[in-house]
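notes to self, project folder thing:

trying the whole complex as one job this time. last attempt i did each chain seperately and stitching them together was a nightmare. two parts in total, labels are on each line so i dont mix them up again. if this works i'll redo the older ones the same way
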Amino acid sequence: MVVRTKGARGRNRAIFIRKFPRQKGGNMATSNSLLPTDSQQQQNLDAITDDDFEYVDEEFVSSNLTPEEQQPAPKLGPMIPELFKQPPLVKDGLVTDTSNLQDQTVEQCLPFLTGEDGPLKLNAYGLPNLNREKHIKFLKQSLGPLPGRFVAVDASRPWYLYWCLSGLTMMGEDVSSYRENIIDTARTMQNESGGFGGGHGQMSHLATSYAVILAIALVGGEEAYDVIDRKGMWRWLCSLKQPDGGFQVCVGGEEDIRGAYIASVIITLLDLPLDLTPDSPAYDGGRSNLLTGIAEYVRSCQTFEGGISSQPNNEAHGAYAFCALACLSILDNPRRIIPSYLDLPRLVSWLSYRQYAPEGGFSGRTNKLVDGCYSHWAGGCFPLIEACLSPSGPNSSDDKKTSTGLAAAPESLYSREGLIRYIMCCCQDQTKRGGLRDKPYKMSDPYHTCYVLSGLSSAQHQWDLDSDPLPLGPGETTPTMAALGADSVWNVFPYIDDNDQIYDDSDRVRPIHPAYAIPQKNVNGIRGYFQGRGFA
Amino acid sequence: MPPKSKAATKPSKSLFPPTNPTTTTTTSIQTTSSSEPSTEPTTVLERSQQRYEKTRPFEAARQKQGGSSKLSKEDQKGWICDQLLHLTNRLPQASRSRLLGPKASKEIWWTINGTNSIDRGLTKKPKPHSTWGTDRNGHDVGSYTIERFDERIKKRTALTALLVSSRVFRENVEREKRGDLDARSGCPVIVTEREIDDERVRRSKMAALKKELYGEITGKLAGSVEWEDVVPIPHEEPEGALAAIAYPADYAEAMSYLRAVMATKEYSHRCLRLTQHIIAMNPAHYTVWLYRAACIFALKLSIPDEIEWLNEVALANLKNYQIWHHRHLLVEHYYPTIASDPEALAQFAKQERDFLIAILSEDTKNYHVWSYRSWLVGKLGMWEDQEELKSIEALIDEDVRNNSAWSHRFFLVFSNPEYSTPGKGATEADPKCPQHIVDREVQYAQQKTYLAPQNQSPWNYMRGVLVKGGQKLASVHAFVEEFVVKLGDETGEEIRSTHALDLLAEIYAEKGETEKADLCLRRLADKWDKIRAGYWNWRRQCLQSEKKAGPEQPGEEVTVA
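result (full assembly):
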């Protein structure tokens, strides 16, 4: 609900009033009473107390909006399919905490999806534009300096580098101007014993190393690449490699599927040798190498639901599905390795069920809520899934059938329209803060900004895998001499919808590599630099 | 400047003709300064400025007039002498006399003395801000009243005295460490408890004074006797660093001490307290947690005590996951000490479960808690523990849509080493899985399905159980049909669960009834679950390609020639 008042200096001031009380435990009032009708709204305003609602007072810069543009929707009404305008057809009566939260989320999203919520200019399909300018400003601000309360993310600072630079890159900004700063920042995070930590004096961690290396790849340039101590990195990776094929995230840390994905990314981007050092926990006299058993570890994380968990025997979770698929796609051609190691039909089923209507966005687990970040974690799995369900190579005789024995994927396995609607309508923070978010009424942050944009990017593009699997060595089930998937040739095209395209062309963001999550040219830049290079 | 004065500034031995000292007493400066009533200064700055003017009357006059050319001839001469004097005063004695020669020096002094200047100490004009600096609020100390300034001077003196005593104390500590002997008594130097207490009091006084005088915040650690011997390693980062955080003073200090103790691999009680201090400020700091674990193991501290402390921290930081890895490490370490004692093991398992129940009641789907829980079941071998199954059932009864609880149940039942084959995939049939377990679990899932048929959790569970047990999906055909009424009948069609329709499609496909399977999928795509139309249509295509391929199962491995 928006109440317009005259603000200082003649500018319009919009006061947003949170329609829903902050969640207090699970004791929500019945959902119907939460949404006052329009005629009730004005009356209710007087009765609202500060205890019930949170006021979000934002000054709206409305000078660039003409009075016509301030109309909430065109006269005929935008073209929004019914699917995105009402709760699902099949619904149970039983009320539990889960159903309460789900109903509340649907109610919070609907006004955004139907364009009834704000003064935004919507296109003929009921979508606002991507507020590039504000999102860019938000990300640039997040690159610092940051106030003291950010101490809570002190161990995640490298992530800020990646999230912000990746988001800026996708929105078309040239981030090479940050090269010097990245070089300086990365140096303080690198440890003499190899790898990057969260900051000066923090232990090396795979997650922070991944973020720093991708940030370096994003700014590019030999000077930046040279910051990385590859020999130290290799030694350190050897110390994390476990006998079961997986990787610990740091020395003494947990072993999980993030480790497997990140190690594959680092090994291939830096073209590290695969040999294990004799002091590696996985050293067995030279039979195993850094890649040995990774695929088996990934396989052990698939659950009875078909999704992937962080470690064997846990619940299937969207973030880990991406890690699993991207990891396998780096190790070998996804057409061969994904169906060999994972139950593909079950995985596709589970992934498809992550998308909800009317919200259009993805959830991370069964019976959990949609969240903008799963636009990437779950949505970003589809280019890889579609690659292994694409008719194999130009020599294939049957273009309806894939090498998996399953039918070729249609144009799109999931509803790109649904995801794009959720992102454009529900995930943009339209206040002067900018940035993208989990869902309406949540604060935007660099994490969500990056991954919502990544999801938008994958929904707007189509990736074709242009290479057939290269032959394996005798007796191999996965490549052991090199990560063959890293050499796969991917072609990217703008996704053209058979029906009308619901978003404006100006809102198309740049594509990123489906496994490395940075643009292809940056992947090629850093790999090309290190390829065939020994240790200096 | 007129050429005359310009020439005059050049030091030369015959600069002035000999003058009668008595004439200089009649300079205008002398007259003006004595005629002006001297006002009482209100601030320190004013007082100093007045003093300055008194000691350097020519310079003061020149500044007031706006240039030496505006001075009278006599005053100009006096000003030049004054300048020369101050210039040469900066030089060493030898070069001073070489520059001017004894005669010229004498003349200069004559002239200056003739002005009756009182003091020649102030060479620079006092200026606001730069002369005394600023206080803790950023105010110029020069703007203080005289009384307030005297007060400040007293405090500074007190602080200096404390600093001196504190240095003596620290020297004594060093001497005690080295085992030095006291010069007077000849006994080894001993720092007494009382002296330590005195030093504590002194330090808090010093911290208070430093804060009051300069706004300097002395960290808890820098001011503490305990951390005396550690030289902190401050945070290092170049100016252009990105996402740089303006660390609060306490945090920055604690981290600089952490860097120092980690560099020397010190594992001690004070380090343990330091980690607690940092964790309270930033519980997401993985480095601190790992260091804490290392300290506990090195000091051989009680694991149950640490777990008790951890419980509090976990309840206060529900979303934190470092806590759970820390707990994992603690249990790994503790387990061997109780492994051979079934009673202790059962007791420990119960304690852990009680805490897990408590924390899950706050956040029923917390991923990290559930991950820890499944690991714990495996570690402590809680497979046959009926309480574990009961507690999961309680959570499912509370919210039948809690998928985390369903997942844990699947793990608990089907990963039991008693009836599972190691290495089997989760979606693979396991011949070791007994029929009665499969039946029991299918029945359980079906009961729960009735409560809310559109709830996917028990559907996924049931399907998972059937696959694990190697059963045909068709064995639940009748049950599934209950949720699908008049399929394909435009008017009477009623779907109580889209998941039932999904499974029904699979059952028909399994039976080879492709047409019926296709109808289920078509209805899902066209009406009941349109968001997944792309997926349902792909499934329809799969049906066709399977039909073409014959009985061959999909998903078979590709063999590359």
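what i see at first glance: The longest helix of chain A spans residues 97-113.
need to look closer tmrw
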